[in-house]
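Morning - 2-amino-3-ketobutyric acid inputs below, output right after.
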Amino acid sequence: MKNVLVIGSTGQIGSELTMKLRSLYSGNIVAGYIPGAKPTGELLESGPSAIVDITNEQQIAEAVSRYNIDTIYNLAALLSAVAEAKPQLAWKIGMDGLFNVLEVAREMNCAVFTPSSIGVFGDNTPKDNTPQDALRSPRTMYGVTKVSGELLSDYYFIRFGVDTRSVRFPGLISYMTHPGGGTTDYAVDIYYSAVRKKTFECPLAAGTFMDMMYMPDAVRAAIEIMEADSSKFAHRNAFNVTAMSFDPEIIYANIKKYKPDFKMVYKVDPLRQAIADSWPNSMDDSCAREEWGWKPEYDLDRMTQDMLEKLPERIL
Ligand code: AKB
């Protein structure tokens, strides 16, 4: 990777990934954004930025040509719960947008990273230790676009030789940028409530297990897979990756270790609960470990300590 375009650079992953790439590489790391979500502060000042709406192929091509881009991180997407409210828009961004990115990559010789998700799995997949090659039959629009995106990305690799790579991210937890509209967002929101000394209303029931990962691990996964020697890949789009699996009771108990007065009550959101129930409790990520050396660094307790230390500086 030398010159990189990050589409969706002001989102939850993009804001941290762009800064990390700028700290590692000396080329152009371009923060792509849509009007209304312009980068601010350090993200704006530390490198180039450009308006790149993923639904506009010409805009993507112009940024790639202007900055001599060799790698595109395609992070534009609607998360699972909001995609259920706006399925047409979710398809337009997730699929029409991906098609635009892949076409530009094919014509202008770029590698492409597009995150997939635990959302590719559905009710008829083994829930525990879900295998890499398990059946992908989601019931959400988010999952439908993610499975289709995996297939389309593999197609562009096989048919046109475009270097597409991807991971199936679990819920991502971070203190810098709020995710917004996901099913796993409760695991971010709970820290906000703990820091603000407010009772947390949990939208998922006790016993709802899902895979999760702290953002520094997620950013490292996104970079390491693009740097990996692909001759060792048996898979491409997309690798299961995980760092931990917990339910609301477990994360609550972990936060209470450091904030004994913190309180949580349940106020289950049926939409999010149904989505979470259709996803794995935990994924098997041994293929990522074997094929490109994936290994998480943060477990729940280390993440909690870091969140409780850094989040107050941002929100209080
Ligand atoms: C969501 O909850 O929609 C996302 C995801 C697991 O892909 N965080």
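Note: The mean pLDDT is 97.

O.
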